[in-house]
C-alpha cells in the first residue's frame, strides 16, 4: 500500500470513528442535548478536526440519518418481498415501518428531526444521498400500488401520489403513539395503525371490502386462523 492510499484509509477510519462517537452520544443524550464539543471530547479530538471531516453538526447528523434510512429501506424491501399478493405487500410495508419505529427508535427520531427541520442545510452530496435513500421506501410502496392497478384490483390512480398519502398517514400515526397516556388512553395504538392501512387499501379497491373486514385490525392473521394455520 502506497503512502497516498494509506493516508486515504486513515482519513476514512477517522471519519468513521467520529460517526461512531456521534451515534453513541446521540443515542445516549438525544439530538438537542448533544454538541460538537461533546463529540470531540469523547473522541479525543479537537473541534477543528471534527469540522475538517464534517462541515457542520447537521452534516454529521445527516450521515446518521442516512444510516437509519438504509436500515428502514432494507426492512421494507425484505417485508415486501416476503409476501406475494398486492394487498399483503402494502400491509407488510406498513408493519415494517411500525417495527422500525419500535426497534430503531433512535434512528426514527433522527429521521424525524430532519423532516421537521426543512431549513437545515448540509453538503449537496450528502443531501442527494439522503434524498435518494429517503424516496426508496415510497418507491417500494408505489410499486405495490402499481401492481394492484395492473391486476385490476385497484382503481386507476397515480401510484406515487397514493404512496405518499399512505406514508404521510403512517408517519403521523407513529407520532400519535406518544399520546398513549392522553388521547389514546383507552385505545390500542397498533390496532388503529393497522386499521389506517386497511382503510387506505379499501379506498384503492375497485370493489370495497365488507364492513366486518374493515373493522378487523389484522385481516391476514384472521384469515390464517380461520384456515387453521395458527
What does this structure look like?
The chain is an all-alpha fold. It is 73% helix and 0% strand. The chain has eleven helices and no strands. It has helices at 3-29, 36-43, 47-53, 57-81, 86-103, 105-115, 124-150, 159-176, 189-204, 211-214, 219-226. Helix 5 crosses helix 6 (105-115). The protein is elongated, with a radius of gyration of 21 Å.
Annotate the secondary structure layout.
Elements: H1 3-29, H2 36-43, H3 47-53, H4 57-81, H5 86-103, H6 105-115, H7 124-150, H8 159-176, H9 189-204, H10 211-214, H11 219-226
Can I get a quick summary?
The protein is built from eleven helices and no strands.
Query: How many structural domains?
Result: 2
> Which sequence of SSEs, written as H and E, runs from N to C?
HHHHHHHHHHH
Distance between the termini: 58 Å
CATH class bucket of the largest domain? Mainly Alpha
Q: How much helix is in the residues?
A: over 70%
| Shape type | elongated
CATH superfamily of the largest domain: Tetracycline Repressor, domain 2
Q: Which architecture name of the largest domain does CATH use?
A: Orthogonal Bundle
> What is the CATH topology descriptor of the largest domain?
Tetracycline Repressor, domain 2
Query: Which class best fits the helix and strand makeup?
Result: mainly alpha
Kindly state the number of beta strands: 0
Largest sheet: none
SS strand fraction = under 5%
Mean pLDDT: 85
Low-confidence stretches: none
**What is the number of helices?**
11
Please give the radius of gyration in angstroms.
Answer: 21 Å
